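Hi support team,

I submitted a single chain yesterday and got back a structure, but I'm not sure I'm reading the token output correctly. Could someone confirm the output below corresponds to the sequence I sent? I've pasted both exactly as they appear in my results page.

Thanks,
R.
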Amino acid sequence: MKKILIIEDNELNMKLFCDILKYQNYNTDTSTDGIEAYKKIKNNKYDLIILDIQLPKLDGFSLLKKLKDENITIPPIIIVSACAMDSDKLKAKEFNIDTYLTKPIDINNFINTVKNKIL
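Hi R., thanks for writing in. Yes, this is the structure output for that exact sequence:
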């Protein structure tokens, strides 16, 4: 079973993502801040990460930079953020992330994006 780490600080979004993914038969792990997420990524293997950008303690882009600077293997990532600014999309491309979904999510699009990214 594929394992997905969901990094999201909003409780309702977290529940929604977990429910959708569990219904699709994915194993999920969760983190509500960047520091906790860093530790989980460093110590576990994930097939996919669902990443919010605006996180407490360490934002999403700072988390990615820390992982990259330490040469920690990063699985495929889907950024899911309420901020649909072009600057964030450009910054995501700097980390070779081309999948950027905006909140509120379209559930069918979310499911299809996860399926395509986790192959």
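A quick pointer for reading it: Residues 53 and 88 are 9 Å apart (CA to CA). Let us know if anything else looks off.

Best,
Support desk
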